[in-house]
Amino acid sequence: MFMRGFKSQEEFGDFLIAKGVTGGGVMQMSGKGVLNILEIPEIDTRAANILKQECLSIGAELALPKEAAGFKQGKVWGALILTNKQAEKLYEKLQAQPFGLKDLAQEMRDILGNYGRTEFALKSPHGREVSLENTQVMGICNATPDSLFDGGSVREMIEAGASIIDIGGESTGPGSKDVSGGEELERVLPIITEVRRDFPDVFISIDTYKADVAANAIEAGVDMVNDVTAGRGDERMFSVVSDLEVPYIMMYAKDATARTTTDEVEYEDVMRTIIEFLESRVQSLGSNVIVDPGMGAFVSGNPRYSYEILSRLDELRVLGCPVLVGASRKSFLGGEVSDRLEGSLAAACAAAMNGAKIIRAHDVEQTVKALKVCNNLYK
Questions:
Q1: Which domain holds residue 29?
Q2: Does residue 46 share a domain with residue 27?
Q3: 378 falls in which pLDDT band (50, 70, 90)?
Q4: Choosing from 187, 210, 254, 360, which is the catalytic residue?
Q5: Annotated catalytic, 330?
Q6: Domains held by the chain: number
Q7: Are residues 25 and 101 in the same domain?
Q8: What are the percentages of helix, strand and coil residues in the chain, rounded to 5?
Q9: Is 304 annotated in the active site?
Q10: Which of 52, 93, 187, 330 does the annotation list as catalytic?
């Protein structure tokens, strides 16, 4: 007898098919093979007790604090524990229930639908496309005098296997300085033009928080926008990326501006903070969004939060968006910048195995080789 673990309903279904289970059997059983735990931060105590009974009636469970039983509090915390198959039964049972349970059921269904989504692709208005079936590498091309680390030429990165080139004309790390939109364009446009001429099929991202820079870069052939402020740095950014229909990377950061600090911000629950922030921004923009939880100083000067993000990264799947992680050469890895290659590769693999679809990296060749192992694990 063996213990088996599966990350998704689809993975369990593929396992059953490989073992000769019939199509009907797979449809009946695959939804029972993966256990979901959904935290409910706050629920009406009356609703909680109804929900508890409905869960028990279908073999699921709802964990509640002791205060829920005596109706001592108006609202309580809860944790739903159920399979996908049980979730569908619970959804139907809650449609006629009071105290907000119908809305809670819909939220549960949406979250599980988002979490189960695994197929993504980046589609450019210029006609280029990148499949995210496997984790892809985004090579960093910094056109700035104060960049963290020079990862090599664009040609070397593409030949090494980078699917996306991220071109930036303004640093945003601790101690970085403001750059005007005009100067930023003077730095990036010649590179964009050259890359587009020599590599017409490569997917290009512009690393900027300025709407005008993004618009000009897209006109020059850029396929995607990477914004570390998630639209907070320029209120016109959402309109630009929406109107021009480009994929848009929005990143969580403790600071609302691009001038990152090293403040050691403390979190009660770092992933909950990140998800709630990104969820509100995703809802404002709509589709075509890639989410980045931030890393290093963008989150906190305390390195433990970056490691916690990596270990809990799959929780971001509830947003229904592909996830990008950029831990490359970041200070939380320790040591001097020049000594962070091994840590960067370890972080990249951890991120990929926890659901990241894009890894933003300085060391493209080494990262591509490392991710081949991760990608092959799920074939």
A1: 1-33
A2: no
A3: low
A4: 360
A5: yes
A6: 3
A7: no
A8: 45, 15, 40
A9: no
A10: 330
